[in-house]
């Protein structure tokens, strides 16, 4: 099977040369003419054919022909159904005809094989076909041998053709928008070659969001939302795990697809101990091969087996991780969509508490980690079971010790997991409170700074952060126990198994080096999934806590709209009644065409509550609200503006109509304001309208309500933020000039000023006890005495004469004199800060001495994990028969969990706690101390994203990675030394390997950092949209804009998903490169060891091979933490916010008041 030449058979040809045939069809000829005992060997399953460096014919037919053919025949009906039902996507071209030509060639060769088998059927028949006889009536079998050898070449050509992209042949018009992954071939996707153009682009240039390719239709947010919504609706929502089942069933097919590569990964992983045994045995001079297998053939087989196992493990792990990441992206899109959809259907108070922001930024990432762990769980269980089975083969009953350790660790881990679930819920609750308070503060920054409450509000936010840190330390304490327990299972299980095998079953002999290292490798593969399961318990507990919070949010009771819709032929009415029997039983409020209704009352009497009842936002005790239309516009007492231009805020979701637009801005007296603003109505209002005055914001809100031209317009105290002259002018233009209720439309307005009642057709008064009474015209006239009438007429005449001279109450915002310097300071990216500066900024609050002590402890902890294996080598080399060496081995194993848990505790208490506290406090001080002009231009969603996502990154993700990653950094150095000691010549390649890793790191980080920055930037749009929707949820429902804002959210989420998914792909590319590089290093080490036997001993190879098994995982983790830590450049850049004190161009006079009462007031 390995040779490509086919000898001509003669009766004296040796049998071994016959097995050099490249194909079983040729080999069977010689076996048939060979002695019967050799033919019987080829009839067995094997897989090895005795006497040859080859498989048996039965094994080859079963595994390489019958097996794949059976799978193809089984899937053929499904494939045909898909082909028949789907529409053509690609037009014919040269690529199609090249594939057809190669396929026809393959079919011809296969047909020749059929003819060949029919020819040999002559032995069982009396007559033979003349055609077949003529075809084979020639000397030897050279022709069929050549045909057989050509078959792999044709198949390879077909594989190469399948890898060629069909993008230019795609029929769809949007083929240029298709991602490279969609049009890539199998091996292109398996090795992530399709991502190389993006990596090269990011290495050479700055990546913008428009440069990113689309990621495929399966990640469409609308589709994900529909799938999850259907799945969620089918679940019993009272069940504890209803949301988890809904997530699983919303993406059913990936559940199946992810199993196959995971099974391959398990198979290749457990093939490594057996490979280690053979390599160590070969290095020690022992061999298990028969005499007819030469040393060279055995060495070659070991090299090929190393390449197969390590490369197969690399590709299968990459394949599995990629499918798992795709599932996580789908889960993220579906959950974010359903959370946002739920926020549109909750009450105004529930929607405004910013719970959706915390769920999207903190809880959904926790569920993503839970889903990842969920797919690893079954593999962990399978690996533990398979590991125990294999271990039993080597040590017999001593493997029961591993079972006992597994059960004990599982019981303890379950107890810790339950406690973490409780503490994590409390922690997330504190995060939600802090984010909600921060959102409220950012929305009122202008008022806070003008009233001198900045210091008090800063202290308040810092106190909330301190409570959050205190709650997080409870979880950290359990995390340290989990780390120690995982390390205990990882270190003490091998010690316990070795002790049981040495002193109890006596099935392990230290003098048998290969067997000893094989047992250690099997125990390592057994304890790794167990240790990972225990260490991942905080992730499990946190994930279920996050899942529970989102499920509770989705199962909140939704307020029911008490209004009823009737046909337009009926009039709209609102009937509400009081539960007190002493009052009249009912009040009828009717709104008809060309009707101006005003609701008057003192401040706080309940006017807004009555309007909320009309809008369907408040429940009714008694009575009913009946509407004949849902065409309603609304302007609240608190203006709701989006962070966009003034024009877009006014026109809303309606098409631009110049005539209507100019009439509306005339009514609201905005023409003069537009002339004074630098950009006119194209001025961006800022977050919450912070670029505008209070009166301007109120008039824009009124203009939006009028521009909609709804059947019913509801204005909630619209003149509360306006001066008397401006409010009178708008009222006259709106009502007296007939613009309020044209074409049968009605206007409802609340007010606390009696002078506005003069233009009302109907007036209702809300009394101080909450009852509503209708005033007759006589009652209205009586309250508006003659003086008020004369004053109104005089004011109207004065304003009409000076209408063109009315100016805005506040001047436009003035840019500071050093704006250019500020732009330079704010124009920061991840590249402006080096990794060292970010590390320094992050760890500086802990103190240099504290950080140095922690790094020393991490180095000792990393060495404590590797020292047991090093000690084993010393034991076996010095005196393998002396069992007293086991005491030192056990002590080294015991030291590791103690040091690991202690180091983690030291980090969480003395390094991380002061670090994240200082990080948050610095951000608070920089935000509240920044100039107003800067805060007006800076997007609130971006600032809030730093308080939510970036703080969660610093508090949760980085601590969860930085402890094991610093430990792995030390482990890399130790592993490199151990691997280089495995073979003398292998040490020469270590510098090249290190330089290669450094080059890959620089190439990878240039793009990954930019993708991470883009992910954070796009997520701020989602957060801003969530904040704005929560602030204006009553307006959204009043205008019936739920579908429109949901479409906007889909668009923003799709944009945010692209860098999120591509960052996953880039990380998988790195993992694949590192795994393949480790595979190359393993092949080189094994090659030097087996080809130059004098360069390596059995002990050195055993120790080196143990380090090679997990080397790529260690390097990948180090790159992961560098990416996460570098994401802290935004909080680092926040320290460059322009300080308000730097803009004080003069000193206050001594006689001015310098003491601020509010600074001493405790919030």
UniProtKB/TrEMBL annotation:
Comp. bias regions, Low complexity: 567-581
CDD domains: ABC_6TM_ABCC_D2
Subcellular location: Cell membrane
GO MF annotations in UniProt: ABC-type transporter activity; ATP binding; ATP hydrolysis activity
TM annotation in the entry: 62-80, 100-120, 242-265, 299-316, 373-391, 397-416, 483-504, 516-535, 841-863, 883-909, 985-1005, 1102-1125
PROSITE patterns: ABC_TM1F, ABC_TRANSPORTER_1, ABC_TRANSPORTER_2
Domain (ABC transporter): residue spans on this chain: 563-800
Protein name (record): ABC transporter
Organism placement in taxonomy: Eukaryota, Fungi, Dikarya, Ascomycota, Pezizomycotina
């Amino acid at each position: 099977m390995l040779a490509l030449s086919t000898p001509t058979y003669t009766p004296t040809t040796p049998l071994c040369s016959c097995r050099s045939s490249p194909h079983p069809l040729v080999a069977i000829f010689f076996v048939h003419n060979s002695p019967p005992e050799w033919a019987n060997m080829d009839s067995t399953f094997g897989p090895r054919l005795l006497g040859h460096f080859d498989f048996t014919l039965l094994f080859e037919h079963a595994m390489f022909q019958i097996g794949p053919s059976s799978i193809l025949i089984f899937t053929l009906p499904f494939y045909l159904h898909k082909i028949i039902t789907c529409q053509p996507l690609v037009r014919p071209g040269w690529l199609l005809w090249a594939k057809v030509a190669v396929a026809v060639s393959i079919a011809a060769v296969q047909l020749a094989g059929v003819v060949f088998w029919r020819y040999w059927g002559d032995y069982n028949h009396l007559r033979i076909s003349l055609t077949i006889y003529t075809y084979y009536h020639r000397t030897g079998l050279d022709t069929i041998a050549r045909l057989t050898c050509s078959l792999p070449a044709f198949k390879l050509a077909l594989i190469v053709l399948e890898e060629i992209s069909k993008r230019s042949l795609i029929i769809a018009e949007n083929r240029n928008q298709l991602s490279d992954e969609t049009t890539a071939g199998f091996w292109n996707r398996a090795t992530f070659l399709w991502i190389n153009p993006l990596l090269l682009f990011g290495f050479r240039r700055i990546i913008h969001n428009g440069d990113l390719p689309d990621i495929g239709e399966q990640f469409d947010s609308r589709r994900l939302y529909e799938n999850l919504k259907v799945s969620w609706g089918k679940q019993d929502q009272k069940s504890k795990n209803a949301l988890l089942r809904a997530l699983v069933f919303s993406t059913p097919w990936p559940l199946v697809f992810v199993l196959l590569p995971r099974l391959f990964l398990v198979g290749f992983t457990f093939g490594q101990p057996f490979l280690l045994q053979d390599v160590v045995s070969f290095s020690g001079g022992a061999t298990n091969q028969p005499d007819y297998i030469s040393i060279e053939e055995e060495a070659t087989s070991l090299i090929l087996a190393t390449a197969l196992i390590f490369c197969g493990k690399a590709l299968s792990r990459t394949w599995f991780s990629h499918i798992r990441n795709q599932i996580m992206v789908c889960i993220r899109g579906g959950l974010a969509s359903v959370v946002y959809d739920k926020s549109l259907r909750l009450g105004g108070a529930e929607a405004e508490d910013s719970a959706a922001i915390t769920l999207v930024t903190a809880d959904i990432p926790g569920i993503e980690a839970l889903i990842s762990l969920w797919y690893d769980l079954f593999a962990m269980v399978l690996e533990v079971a398979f590991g125990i089975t294999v271990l039993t083969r080597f040590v017999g009953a001593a493997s029961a010790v591993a079972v006992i350790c597994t059960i004990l660790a599982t019981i303890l881990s379950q107890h810790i997991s339950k406690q973490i679930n409780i503490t994590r819920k409390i922690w997330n609750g504190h995060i939600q409170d802090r984010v909600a308070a921060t959102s409220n503060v950012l929305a009122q920054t202008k008022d806070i700074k003008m009233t001198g409450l900045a210091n008090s509000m800063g202290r308040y936010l810092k106190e909330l952060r301190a409570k959050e840190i205190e709650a997080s330390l409870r979880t950290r304490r359990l995390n340290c126990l989990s780390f120690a327990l995982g390390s205990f299972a990882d270190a003490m299980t091998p010690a316990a198994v070795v002790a049981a095998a040495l002193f109890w079953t006596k099935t392990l002999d230290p003098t048998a080096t290969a067997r000893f290292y094989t047992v250690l490798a099997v125990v390592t593969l057994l304890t790794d999934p167990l240790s990972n399961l225990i260490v991942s318990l905080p992730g499990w507990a946190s994930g279920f806590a996050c899942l529970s919070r989102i499920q509770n949010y989705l199962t909140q009771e939704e307020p029911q709209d008490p209004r009823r819709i009737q046909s337009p032929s009926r009039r709209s009415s609102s009937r509400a009644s009081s539960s007190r029997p002493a009052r009249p039983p009912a009040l009828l409020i009717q709104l008809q065409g060309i009707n101006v209704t005003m609701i008057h009352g003192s401040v706080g009497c309940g006017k807004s509550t009555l309007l909320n009842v009309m809008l369907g936002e408040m429940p009714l005790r008694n009575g009913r609200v009946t509407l004949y239309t849902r065409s309603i516009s609304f302007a609240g007492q608190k203006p709701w503006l989006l962070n966009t231009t003034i024009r877009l805020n006014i026109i809303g979701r309606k098409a631009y109509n110049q005539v209507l637009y100019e009439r509306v801005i005339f009514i609201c007296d905005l023409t003069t304001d537009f002339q004074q603003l630098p950009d006119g109505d194209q001025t961006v209002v800022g977050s919450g309208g912070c670029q505008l005055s209070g009166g301007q914001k109120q008039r824009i809100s009124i203009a939006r309500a009028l521009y909609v031209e709804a059947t019913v317009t509801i204005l909630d105290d619209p003149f509360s933020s306006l001066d008397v002259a401006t409010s009178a002018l708008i009222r006259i233009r709106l009502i007296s000039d007939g613009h309020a209720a044209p074409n049968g439309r009605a206007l409802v307005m609340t007010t606390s000023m009696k002078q506005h009642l003069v233009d009302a057709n109907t007036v209702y008064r809300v009394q101080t006890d909450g009852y509503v009474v209708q005033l007759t015209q006589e009652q209205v006239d009586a309250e508006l005495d003659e003086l008020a009438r004369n004053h109104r007429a005089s004011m109207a005449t004065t304003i009409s004469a000076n209408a063109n001279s009315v100016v805005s109450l506040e001047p436009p915002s003035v840019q500071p004199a050093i704006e250019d310097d500020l732009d330079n300071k704010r124009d920061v990216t991840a590249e402006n800060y080096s990794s060292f500066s970010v590390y320094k900024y992050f760890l500086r609050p802990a103190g240099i001495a504290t950080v140095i002590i922690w790094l020393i402890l991490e180095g000792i902890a990393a060495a404590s994990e590797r020292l047991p294996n090093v000690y084993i080598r010393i034991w076996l080399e010095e005196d393998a028969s002396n069992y007293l060496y086991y005491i030192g081995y056990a002590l080294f194993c015991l030291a590791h969990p103690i040091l690991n848990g202690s180091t983690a505790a030291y980090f969480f208490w003395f390094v991380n706690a002061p670090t994240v506290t200082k990080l948050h406090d610095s951000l608070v001080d920089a935000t509240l101390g920044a100039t107003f002009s800067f805060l007006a231009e800076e997007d609130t969603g971006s600032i809030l994203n730093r308080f939510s996502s970036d703080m969660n990154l610093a508090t949760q993700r980085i601590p969860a990675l930085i402890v094991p990653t610093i430990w792995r950094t030390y482990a890399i150095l130790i592993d490199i030394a151990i691997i280089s000691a495995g073979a003398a010549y292998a040490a020469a390649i270590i510098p090249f390997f290190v330089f290669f890793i450094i080059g890959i790191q620089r190439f990878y980080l240039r793009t990954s950092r930019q993708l991470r920055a883009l992910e954070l930037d796009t997520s701020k749009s989602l957060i801003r949209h969530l904040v704005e929707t929560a602030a204006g949820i009553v307006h959204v429902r009043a205008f019936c804009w739920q579908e429109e804002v949901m479409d906007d959210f889909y668009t923003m989420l799709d944009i945010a998903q692209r860098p999120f998914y591509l960052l996953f792909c880039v990380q998988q590319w790195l993992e694949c490169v590192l795994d393949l590089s480790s595979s190359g290093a393993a092949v080189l080490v094994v090659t030097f060891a087996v080809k130059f036997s004098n360069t390596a001993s059995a002990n050195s190879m055993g120790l080196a091979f143990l380090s090679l098994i997990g080397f790529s995982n260690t390097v990948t983790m180090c790159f992961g933490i560098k990416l996460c830590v570098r994401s802290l450049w935004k909080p680092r850049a926040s320290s460059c916010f322009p300080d308000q004190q730097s803009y004080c161009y003069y000193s206050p006079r001594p006689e001015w008041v310098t003491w601020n009462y509010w600074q001493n007031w405790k919030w």
